[in-house]
Known about the structure:
Elements: E1 3-4, H1 14-17, E2 22-34, E3 39-51, E4 55-59, H2 66-74, E5 81-84, E6 87-90, E7 93-94, H3 100-106, E8 111-114, H4 128-137, H5 144-157, H6 163-166, H7 176-188, E9 194-198, H8 206-223, E10 226-231, H9 234-238, E11 243-248, E12 251-257, H10 258-264, H11 268-275, E13 323-327, E14 330-332
Parallel strand pairs: 4-10, 4-11, 8-9, 9-10
Antiparallel strand pairs: 1-13, 2-3, 2-5, 2-6, 6-7, 11-12, 12-14, 13-14
Helix pairs in contact: 4-5, 5-7
Amino acid sequence: xxxxxxxxxxxxxxxxxxxxxxxxxxxxxxxxxxxxxxxxxxxxxxxxxxxxxxxxxxxxxxxxxxxxxxxxxxxxxxxxxxxxxxxxxxxxxxxxxxxxxxxxxxxxxxxxxxxxxxxxxxxxxxxxxxxxxxxxxxxxxxxxxxxxxxxxxxxxxxxxxxxxxxxxxxxxxxxxxxxxxxxxxxxxxxxxxxxxxxxxxxxxxxxxxxxxxxxxxxxxxxxxxxxxxxxxxxxxxxxxxxxxxxxxxxxxxxxxxxxxxxxxxxxxxxxxxxxxxxxxxxxxxxxxxxxxxxxxxxxxxxxxxxxxxxxxxxxxxxxxxxxxxxxxxxxxxxxxxxxxx
Length: 341
């Protein structure tokens, strides 16, 4: 049986290494914040692999480390945060060896991020057309006319009506949902190889949300763009992602094909997330809630971080469990893993 822990540098599982060459290969990623109160282990030994055209859903509660994982891959973690990894490679490049300028050139061209708050992307003092044209011309030697046409094309792709008119307004003149769609469009402008989406559809209504999910999935299939979709909503990502990685307290506790995890989750935390999703079978009944709350990353319990909330916990859980292979492409980090009865 192939096993690896979340606290030691490890190679990708053999199944991940076969077939198409990996676009993203992350092993034992740690992003720690050294504060006066102590060390906050926001990301603690995360390993991820991604091929071209593949969609990975990164799932977990608020505070589980999902967004910091995305920021770490983009090189957007500032002091007092420190990033270390056994391996951090993207498209053949060692990201740990890149200069700040080289990393800046990668962002927006080969790798892009869609933030949860669109105002982290948009400048409130500039019109939309200025921001989108500059985003294109920063990475391509094209005329303003060509850049504008590309902006109009992408705005239409994310469901913005009358895109020519929307280019002429300022962000404050748009609704929150419209601003988010423009932020998504900016991330897609230069056809990056990797897009990291940090809960980008939270502020959108269901109709537009469905449209964007369809367009994003189509984009990945047709152009080979790889996508990491960060969310707390398993209902959304279950129909979007090829694979899922479930995070808790800075660690991945279960990962595998989306169908295998949704249909046969083995970690108690993953099972709790799935049980809390409303369905036709739970109509009129109280939704399941995982007891307790995510522990402070300054004071994590010894061993399995979920043990203080887990109904299966025993004394054995005071030791950190390894991430063990339980299926062809399914790994779980739990001493008492198993399909829920």
